[in-house]
Amino acid sequence: MENLSIGESSRSTVSLVRDIEDDDVASGQTDNSSTLNTSYLTPLQQSLVFELTTRRKRIAKAQRRIEFWERYEEKQAKEKQAGKRTATDQFERDVVDEEYLDDLIKQRKDRLAELQQSQTLKESIMESADAAHSINASMAAVPPGPFPNSPDISLCPHDIAPERQPIRSLVARRDEAALKFLQLDDQIKRAQRERYKILGNIQAARETTANLYREIHELKEALARKKTDELDISNSVTIDRQEDAQARIAALQRAINTARGKREMVKGVLRGLILESGLDWSKNKGLRKLVLQLGDDEVYSSDEDVDLYTDEEETEESSDEGED
């Protein structure tokens, strides 16, 4: 469209310039027609004639050309301004996104393919018409031979010598061969389309298989990471539990040591009080037991056994005396 507009504008420009020149010729304002025989005039007179006639005509002609080119530039500017269409005017919608442009390009490509096929069909029709014209002309120039009715020659056109076969039979054979060729070509094209379709299916299956392999690999990696995380968590939990148990044991040990220290301190204080009081603790059973308990554990256990043994003896003696 732009090339057509440029061509039309150039033709209009040439026509307008020719109109200006024709007006100049019709009005007698060309340089040749305005030339006067001023050889007999003086230089001052010649300059006056030039200023009054030729110069004014040239200035008027230049003025007309300037006006023409101004109008031409204004016209070009208007056409250029009118040619600036918005997206709404060009695509009939306000928002033109990438998806819409892809669809539009696909439609234009399909339309271009249709036009190319139509052009190819037209060219083949023109070639066929040209060939048919030459064949028809040669057929009209050659009359049919008498040999189809001849008894000594077979009616089959294939058995007739090539130089004696009529053009009509050759044309019929050519048409049959062309039809067979077209049928075979159609079969080949169908087979090619099926082959392309099968290749596309194979490619899609390969892509699907690759995607499945990729997903399986990702799942295996995720499972391995999950197992590793679980093992780390269990190890950390075990370590934490062991650390907690050790901390508890240490705390209990410290508490036991503290209690033992307090116990020893209390034992020492009580032992000191009893000893400093001046009482004879060995005669009093309760004091004797208390003093023995305030001693060491081993001593306490042995003394307690002795005390228990003496208690048993006393109970036996009291029982014997009661029987007597």
TrEMBL record:
It holds the Pfam family CENP-H. It comes from the Eukaryota. Keywords: Centromere, Chromosome, Coiled coil, Kinetochore, Nucleus. Residues 302-324 are annotated as: Disordered. GO terms for biological process: kinetochore assembly. The keyword Nucleus applies. InterPro entries: CENP-H_C (IPR008426). The keyword Nucleus applies. This is Centromere protein H C-terminal domain-containing protein. Belongs to the CENP-H/MCM16 family. One of its GO terms (cellular component) is nucleus. Residues 174-262 form a coiled coil. It is found in: Chromosome, Centromere, Kinetochore; Nucleus. Residues 160-294 form the Centromere protein H C-terminal domain. The lineage of its organism: Eukaryota, Fungi, Dikarya, Basidiomycota, Ustilaginomycotina. Signal peptide: none annotated.
